Every structure is written in C-alpha cells, then in structure tokens.
C-alpha cells in the first residue's frame, strides 16, 4: 500500500460554520472563490463539468450534509480520479475550512507547493467574500 504526501491547508473564517458551509458547498458559487474553477461549472445530472487547461473535467461532490463535508472527486480527461477532501468545521462562533492537498504520483515538490499555495489563495478569497472584505 502506498500513501501520498499530504498537506492540510486551512483558514479561519469569522462567520457561523453553517453559513460558510452553505456558501462553499454551492458549486454555482465556487468560481467566485476557487480560481481553478473560474470558467464556471455546468451541471450534468449528479456531476458538474468544468473547463480547464487540460480540457473538460468532471466533478462529483458529496451530498449535502450536516457535517460540513464538501469532499469531491475530480475526473481528469485521461480518466484519472483525484479525491479532494474539503471540510468546514465549527471553530468557536466561526468556522475552520480545511483542504487536504495530496502530492500525486509524478508531481514534483515545486508543483506540490504550488498546489498548496493555490489552495491557500482560494481559501483566502473565500474568507474575504464571507467576511465582507
């Protein structure tokens, strides 16, 4: 069994966690804060389609839930599936948003660091929107 190197990127948001979850879990709003989805998502049944530099990718999200789980599987054009763990957790009167970045096979350390930095930028954008900055 092989595990990948991982890095949990997280940020605190001064809004009730259920509000953060409701906003962040809405695929139609993700292009507002997730740069990788800036071109938008198109609904296709129980999946969403996003255009990207590698072509169209399919995204399947966890069902709406009471636990703050926004996990999603991204299927790349070559068929590779990437599991993304995204969680909103209560943190006092606010929320903690955490995304687990995985170092995929063949990814360099520099690429892994860029992915983690991009996720942090996305979470900072989410924070700015939800805190009204």
Written overview of the protein:
The protein has two helices and seven strands; from the N terminus they run βαββββββα. The chain is of the alpha+beta class and 133 residues long. Strands 1-7-6-5-4-3-2 form a seven-stranded antiparallel sheet. The N and C termini lie far apart (45 Å).
Furnish the topology, listing elements before pairings.
Elements: E1 6-13, H1 17-24, E2 41-44, E3 47-52, E4 55-61, E5 72-75, E6 81-91, E7 94-102, H2 109-130
Antiparallel strand pairs: 1-7, 2-3, 3-4, 4-5, 5-6, 6-7
List keywords for this structure.
7 strands, alpha+beta, seven-stranded antiparallel β-sheet, 133 residues
Beta-strand percent range: 35-45%
In the sheet with the most strands, the strands line up as 1-7-6-5-4-3-2
Gyration radius (Cα, Å) is 15 Å
- pLDDT under 50 segments (min length 5)? none
User: In which range does the helix fraction lie?
Assistant: 10-25%
Number of strands: 7
- So what's the overall shape? globular
Report the end-to-end length measured between terminal Cα atoms: 45 Å
Overall average residue pLDDT? 91
Main β-sheet description:
7 strands, antiparallel
Helix count? 2
Order of helices and strands, N to C?
EHEEEEEEH
Helix and strand composition category: alpha+beta
